[in-house]
Amino acid sequence: MNNAIDRKCVWIASLLLLALLLVLPFLVKNYRVFQFNLVIVYAIAILGLNILTGFNGQISLGHGAFYAFGAYTAAILMDKVGVPYWATLPVAFVFCFVFGFLVGFPALRLAGHYLALATFALALAMPPLLKYKKVEGLTGGVQGIVLNKPEPPFNFRFLDQSFGADRWLYFFSLAVGALMFLVAWNLVRGRVGRAMIAVRDHPIAATAMGINLPMLKSMTFGVSAGITGVSGALGAIVVAFVSPDSFTVFLSIFLLVGVVVAGLGSIPGAIFGGIFIQFVPNIADEISKAAPAAIYGLFLIAFMYLMPTGVMGGVNALWERLRSRRAD
Questions:
Q1: What is the full per-residue pLDDT of the chain (328 aa) written as tens digits?
Q2: Residues ≥6 apart with Cβ < 8 Å to 268
Q3: Alpha helices in 202-248 (DSSP H)
Q4: Potential cystine with 292: which of 68, 92, 123, 284 (Cβ 3.0-4.6 Å)?
């Protein structure tokens, strides 16, 4: 009986959330819609990193490099080749999957903080590589690449708001995000997901059970990089601009912060991680123009003190407490 009630509550909450998401861009101005687009972009990137770190136990401080690779893949295809914006996303996934697989395979000899340092070096190297003179004809060098935002296929007004480029990209990003979350959800709930968790919790026992440890870790690295590459490509389309200085090592650190805020091993928590890394720096800057980083640090410390297992860990604990009280 309780399980049936729980499922009914989940369905009602899901339908209400869907209705809110569909109406939300018409309730706010264009700049807020643009910020919501970035929340979705960051949520997809955090989702990709969480598959690697939360479910497989591999710590990466270099996922900003995969994000940049996906962004430049989309920008170059759109600017130099004339590929439609929507067609760049699967290409970015394939390229970043291969890139991540090639990076993950030699990194198999590393673990823990050694792997984190190796991927950190990748994040440090990406901006200079994008500025390298021999490829600046393709990447635009320090100037980057300016893109045009795609126009919506139709136009109308709703709640006194026009259906412009940002609102169209919001629904496009929402559809892409839903697809990526569905893929990740099916992945971690299947045999592959159970194998990933087994490798994370006890690699020796996983190997004894017949799991191909090198291949699984490399494939996980590739899938994680591919999803992050899709988010980078989507971010390039949303922002309509890419440059090397947009993909510094701080991007990789922010993505890892988003994973911690979301909760390790949580699929829906990536949304809260995206909200955190998009809005909290802005709030910190409004509180103190002189030391926004200090305010941001205080926010993060307070958050970790109040929710040490992330947002979804706190939500799950609260839900279990409510269920136990209702049972009593």
A1: 455 555 676 677 778 888 888 888 888 888 899 999 999 999 999 999 999 998 888 888 889 999 999 999 999 999 989 899 999 999 999 999 999 998 877 766 777 778 888 888 889 999 999 998 888 888 888 899 999 988 887 776 665 566 778 889 999 999 999 999 999 999 988 888 888 888 888 888 888 888 888 888 889 999 999 999 999 999 999 999 999 999 999 999 999 999 999 888 889 889 999 999 999 988 888 887 777 888 888 888 888 888 888 888 877 777 777 777 766 5
A2: 181, 312
A3: 203-208, 213-239
A4: 284
71: left (phi over 0), alpha (psi -120 to 50) or beta: alpha
Residue 225 in tokens? 């990089």
In the block, tokens 């590393």 appear at: 110
Please tell me whether the overall predicted TM-score, pTM, comes out greater than 0.70 for this model. Answer: yes
**Residue ranges making up the domain that contains 182:** 28-327
In single-letter form, the type of residue at position 36 comes to F
Closest C-alpha among 97, 51, 309, 60 to residue 193: 51
10 Å CB burial of residue 14 (0-12, 13-18, 19+) is exposed
The answer to whether residue 315 is domain-embedded is yes
Does residue 15 fall inside a structural domain?
Answer: no
Rounded to whole angstroms, the Cα distance separating 119 from 109 reads 13
The total of other beta-carbon atoms located within 10 Å of residue 173's CB is 23
Q: Which residue type does 232 have?
A: G
Residue given tokens 């003179």 in the structure block: 133
155 in a structural domain: yes
CATH number for the domain harbouring residue 233 = 1.10.3470
* Matching residue, tokens 């996983």: 206
The count of residues in the chain is: 328
Looking at the 3D structure of the chain, how many domains does it have?
A: 1
Contacts of 91 (CB under 8 A, 6+ apart): 73, 74, 77, 83, 233
Q: Could you tell me if residue 105 is inside a domain?
A: yes
